[in-house]
Design goal:
Blueprint lengths: L9 H16 L4 H18 L3 H14 L3 H17 L3 H14 L4 H20 L3 H21 L5 H9 L11
Family: Belongs to the Ycf3 family.
Keywords: Membrane, Photosynthesis, Plastid, Repeat, Thylakoid, TPR repeat
Subcellular location: Cellular thylakoid membrane; Membrane; Plastid
């Protein structure tokens, strides 16, 4: 049974119906339509915690999707799955690939910063102060970029930057 028929809640069903209508009326190629179907199925599987199924769909979407902007979101979602599974190195690879295609993806920048911050905390707990400082510096760099793109988001990151003295100017983070 296709993933689309498994959606049980009203919002998912509504999104699926609207997406199907839009997909039929948009002048897109067969490959683009197939890529979108795989992407949509990947998002559905991911939201249900079916990460292996989501990855299969995302990888199929990557094979078919040619648009760099759309590919960036597929890569971002693959990064999310690897991050959720604790595979931070792989997650970073996919987040960076997404940013190569779409530099205006603050959520990827934020997630990279979160990983570096986590690694900094881990190094700090292991009394590896030089490594911790390096990871915190990287987190700072990526959070500042994310905040520049989305100034009203990432409040916890902004607070961390302020409380650690890493915020020198309240209006521009770069």
């Amino acid at each position: 049974m296709p993933r689309l028929q498994k959606n049980d809640n009203f919002i998912d069903k509504t999104f699926t119906v609207i997406a199907d209508i839009v997909l039929k009326i948009l002048p897109t190629s067969k490959e683009e339509k197939q890529a979108f179907c795989y992407y949509r199925d990947g998002m559905s599987a991911q939201s249900e915690g079916e990460y292996a199924e989501a990855l299969e769909n995302y990888y199929e979407a990557l094979v078919l999707e040619e648009d760099p902007y759309d590919r960036s979101y597929i890569l971002y979602n693959i990064g999310l799955i690897y991050s959720n599974n604790g595979e931070h190195t792989k997650a970073l690879e996919y987040y960076h690939q997404a940013l190569e295609l779409n530099t205006k993806l603050p959520q990827a920048l934020n997630n990279i910063a979160v990983i570096y911050h986590y690694q900094g905390l881990k190094a700090s707990n292991e009394n590896k102060s030089n490594l911790a400082r390096t990871m915190f510096d990287k987190a700072e760099q990526y959070w500042k970029q994310a905040i520049n793109l989305a100034p009203n988001n990432y409040i916890e990151a902004q607070n961390w930057l302020k409380t650690t003295g890493r915020l020198k100017n309240n209006y521009k983070y770069m």
